[in-house]
Design a protein that fits this description.
The complex is a heterodimer of chains A (63) and B (266). With 63 residues, chain A is mainly α. Chain A has two helices and no strands. Chain B contains 13 helices and no strands. Classes of the chains: A mainly alpha (63), B mainly alpha (266).
Chain lengths: 63, 266
């Protein structure tokens, strides 16, 4: 499986994990989805930041 | 007999069901003993010393050969693992070679011994609850956690949070299923990924399915995304652990005694 395919799988799997992560904070499916969507966005955003930071560090320090 | 909740839990880890009997719940105690010791004994009868191949840090000497903390999740069934550790042969080359030999039906047998560890932990949690002397609400907390362990989301469903149970259960099973798919059916194999399996087994029905159906199959070609497979299946197990604790808490809070105590403290 290519890196692109793995990246495509990443957001839906993170969303499913976040649905379970927020489970204690809601008592119905609608509430869970409402809480899980912004959490998913946050995790994806931070993941992108970390990956970009690693690539920058690689460019700077690994010739 | 009066036992503190902590004492009851520790006693239950040592001898499953004993705390229940001492607390005046003999039937539940017998069920706890029969399930945990029975599952362990049935599995051990098939695999024998092959169980020690499942130590994620192999022990040929030292204290951990006799206190097998590296066999997870069996070690949670403390009494049984201590008994078989005491019966363990000296580590001669022949004995160590024998441990390496796969046994027929070992996937299911090792699932049974592993499940006995998680069952022991759930019965210890139940002993803790019984010792607190609180009445159960819709369901005993440990029963809600046990149902969720076996079928993700079922505890929430039976506790009245139906849509939540269906959604979270589906989320766990989809991630577990993707793990099996990406691993070509070989990402949930205890003898290959011992430590990962301890997490995967937290999704009971998934690990049982893998032990019965996918793991015994022969691997004809190495799955390209096996790494992704066992990581996802383990993620699913850990997701289900979160659901189990949530179901336990919801059941605990549904107790009339819990509500009364909270109102009194407020």
């Amino acid at each position: 499986m290519s890196l692109l395919e793995r990246l495509l799988w990443f957001p839906p799997i993170v969303f499913l994990i976040m649905v379970v992560y927020v489970a204690p904070k809601a008592s119905d499916a609608r509430g869970l989805v409402r809480l899980a969507l912004p959490k998913t966005g946050k995790v994806l955003g931070w993941t992108a930041v970390i990956v970009v930071a690693m690539l920058v560090l690689e460019e700077l320090f690994l010739p | 007999m009066v036992l503190r909740p902590g004492q009851a839990a520790i006693l239950s880890f040592a001898v499953p069901g004993l705390a229940h009997v001492l607390l005046g719940r003999p039937v539940r105690g017998l069920v706890a003993f029969a399930l945990t010791v029975g599952a362990f004994a049935a599995g051990y009868a098939i695999v024998g010393d092959r169980l020690w191949y499942m130590e994620f840090m192999p022990q040929t000497s030292g204290i951990f050969r006799h206190v097998p903390v590296f066999v997870l999740p069996e070690f949670l069934n403390f009494g049984c693992t201590m008994v078989v550790a005491a019966l363990r042969d000296a580590p001669t080359p022949d004995v160590l070679r024998h441990v390496l030999l796969p046994r027929p039906g070992e996937d299911f047998a090792l699932a049974l011994t592993g499940f006995s560890g998680y069952a022991a932990a759930l019965f210890a949690a139940d002993a803790w609850w019984v010792a607190r002397g609180q009445r159960s609400g819709r369901m005993a907390p440990a029963a809600a956690a046990a149902l969720t362990w076996m079928v993700p989301g079922s505890g929430h469903f039976l506790l009245g949070q139906r849509s939540k149970g269906l959604l979270t259960g589906a989320a766990v099973l989809i991630v577990f299923g993707l793990g099996l798919f990406f691993g070509g059916g070989h990402s949930v194999e205890r003898s290959s990924y011992t430590l990962w399996w301890a997490g995967q087994a937290l999704c009971g029905i998934g690990a049982l399915f893998a032990a019965l159906v996918t793991a015994p199959g022969r691997m004809t070609e190495f799955p390209e995304s096996l790494d992704l497979g066992y990581v996802l299946a383990t993620c699913a197990g850990l997701m289900n652990l979160m659901l189990m604790t949530d179901a336990f808490t919801i059941a605990e809070e549904s107790s009339p005694d819990f509500t009364a105590a909270r109102e009194a403290s407020a």
